[in-house]
Every structure is written in C-alpha cells, then in structure tokens.
C-alpha cells in the first residue's frame, strides 16, 4: 500500500509526521493531508515551511516553540536528508518530547543520505511515518483503482490498465485522469470503452493497440491500426517501443519457472496479475524461435526509424509483417 502510516495519533498536535520516499506526488499529498489534519483541530494554526539545509539548532528550537500569536503551530521541514549535523540533536530532542501545541512534518526524499537520523526518529513513539514509494509498474493499475475509489467511483481492472497505458507512469497525471473520469461518468463503472472516449487518440494507446494485434497474429488489424497511426503523425519510436515491450513480456513469461504463484509470476513478468491471461493467450501462438525472430525484426525496425532508414513508415509496415509471420511460424 502506498503512503502507509507506521503509527496513528488521536491528534496531529504534539506529534511528528515523517514523510519518506522518492514519490514526490505522494509526499506532497501526505504533507497537505497533515496540514489539513491540524487545521481541523486548530483552524487558526500558524504554518511555517523551511528547507532543512537553511536551519540552525537555534532556528529549529525557535520554530518548534509555542507561538505567542496562535494556539498551534505547524512546521514543515523539507529535505531532511540535508539537515546540518549540528541540528540533529535538537530535532531528536523535540521529537522525543514534542510540544503539545506544535506539529512537525519532516520530508525526506529517500535514499541513504540522512539514514542514521531517520532510524533514530523511527524509534520514537511520537513519530509516525508515511512512506511515499514509487509503485512498481505492475502496481500502477492498483493505484488507479484506489484513486477512482477515493473519488467515489469504480473501475474495471482492464480499464485501469488501459488508463496506465494511455497516460503513462506519472502519478500526478494518473490521479488527475482518475478524478476527471469519475467526475464525468459517475455513478457508471468505468470500463475500457468509457476510458477510451478520452484517450483513444493518444499515441501511446494506439501504439499498444498495434502491438497487441500483431502479437496476437492479426496482421490485417495491426496494419489498419498502423496506417491510422502514421496518418496521425504518431512517432514511430512509440510503435517500436510498444512491440519491444510486448515481446519482452512474452519472453519473460515463456522462460518463467513453473513453480511460481500467480503473484510471483506477475512480478517476474512485470505485469499486473490479471494481464497474465492475455499474455498466456498470446504466447500460445509463439515458438521460442518465433519470439527470437520477432525481436530481431523489432530491433531492426527500431534502428531504422531512429535514422537508419529513409522511410520509417515502410520500416514499421515491414516490422508488422515480420512479427505476424513469426507468429504464424
């Protein structure tokens, strides 16, 4: 689960919230929620946001002291990994016995820098941690599903995966798209057909449609989709990338150990578990030699569309024909 808390407190005041991890969007969301929690308890709370590398021990003590002008104070310290060494003791002392009128939010961008300080903070009872880890690619559809539910909607697994293909891995863009779709279509359950209304013209979607048709052995459909793409100026490199991605997934599935569970197999392949059925269906039409031939054809086309051929459109058509021919063989 993304953004899980290690501990919970009845009030955000008299506590330290530690936000750790490289997913900037999730970190921003956690900080915003911490501020809302304080405002819900003390609407007039003062808020101060400071970069950690600008602090001194005295300045930190001043920031975390009770305010003369407000009932509560919130201090957000960003980039804790860059906190000067002389400030560590002061921060740990505050975190060990936070002032009851103060809430402190510490933001650490992940990585090893400042890890010793993090470890000490994590051991303190008043510190709660929210982790903002970047989700693995196969977990992105689950992120979309959670976003849709948060806005009061529902979405099918296939539609969530389609949205990821359309928008990409940027969490902010995925969250925005999920919110927009729920706003426009709720209370309908979001299906691939509904999501496609918004994203069918996206280059990434068309590229994966072309690859899916070719990997399934449907040459006619793949060429029709390809001609739409070339007529609408879809970058050829997106098409070759989609083919390479699909073939790599089939190759990993074909070479996977036989004793893996569904979850383990999904991680090995690098895909959401519900997509395994589609990949298995596609794999039935392939031999190991056919996969090798197809990968070589895609690699050749990728080189050609990046400058090695005079006609990228012809290179992509030849790739589709070679891949579907490898599938038949």
Explain this structure.
The protein has helices at residues 24-41, 57-63, 85-96, 115-122, 140-150, 157-167, 171-185, 192-199, 203-215, 219-231, 236-254, 262-269, 276-283, 288-308, 312-328; strands at residues 15-20, 46-51, 73-78, 102-108, 127-131. It is elongated. Residues 1-9 have low confidence and may be disordered. It has a five-stranded parallel beta sheet, with helices on one face. The protein is α/β, with parallel strands linked by helices. Strand 2 (46-51), helix 2 (57-63) and strand 3 (73-78) form a beta-alpha-beta unit.
Summarize the structure.
The protein is α/β, with parallel strands linked by helices.
Itemize the secondary structure elements and their pairings.
Elements: E1 15-20, H1 24-41, E2 46-51, H2 57-63, E3 73-78, H3 85-96, E4 102-108, H4 115-122, E5 127-131, H5 140-150, H6 157-167, H7 171-185, H8 192-199, H9 203-215, H10 219-231, H11 236-254, H12 262-269, H13 276-283, H14 288-308, H15 312-328
Parallel strand pairs: 1-4, 1-5, 2-3, 3-4
Helix pairs in contact: 2-3, 5-6, 5-7, 6-8, 6-9, 9-10, 9-11, 10-15, 11-13, 11-14, 14-15
């Amino acid at each position: 689960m993304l953004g899980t808390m290690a501990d919970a407190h009845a009030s955000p005041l008299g506590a330290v919230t530690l936000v750790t991890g490289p997913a900037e969007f999730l970190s921003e969301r956690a900080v915003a929620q911490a501020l809302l929690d304080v405002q819900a308890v003390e609407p007039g709370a003062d808020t101060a946001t400071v970069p950690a590398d600008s602090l001194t021990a005295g300045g930190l003590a001043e920031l975390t002291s009770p305010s003369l002008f407000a009932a509560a104070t919130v201090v957000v310290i960003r980039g804790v990994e860059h906190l000067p060494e002389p400030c560590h003791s002061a921060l740990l002392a505050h975190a060990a016995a936070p002032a009851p009128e103060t809430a402190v939010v510490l933001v650490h961008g992940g990585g090893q820098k400042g890890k010793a300080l993090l470890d000490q903070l994590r051991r303190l009872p008043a510190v709660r941690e929210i982790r903002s880890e970047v989700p693995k690619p196969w977990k992105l559809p689950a992120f979309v599903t959670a976003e849709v539910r948060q806005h009061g909607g529902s979405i099918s697994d296939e539609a969530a995966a389609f949205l990821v293909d359309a928008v990409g891995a940027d969490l902010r863009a995925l969250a925005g798209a999920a919110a927009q779709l729920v706003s426009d279509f709720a209370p309908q359950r979001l299906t691939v057909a509904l999501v496609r209304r918004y994203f069918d013209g996206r280059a990434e979607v068309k590229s994966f449609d072309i690859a899916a048709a070719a990997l399934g052995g449907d040459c006619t459909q793949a060429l029709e989709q390809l001609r739409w793409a070339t007529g609408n100026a879809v970058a050829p490199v997106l098409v070759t990338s989609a083919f390479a991605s699909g073939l790599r997934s089939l190759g990993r599935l074909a070479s996977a150990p036989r004793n893996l569970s569904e979850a383990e197999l999904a991680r090995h392949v690098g895909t959401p578990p519900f997509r395994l059925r589609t990949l298995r269906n596609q794999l039935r039409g392939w031999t190991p030699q056919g996969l090798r031939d197809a990968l070589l054809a895609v690699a050749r086309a990728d080189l050609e569309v990046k400058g090695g051929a005079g006609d990228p459109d012809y290179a992509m058509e030849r790739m589709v024909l070679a891949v579907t021919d490898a599938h038949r063989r």
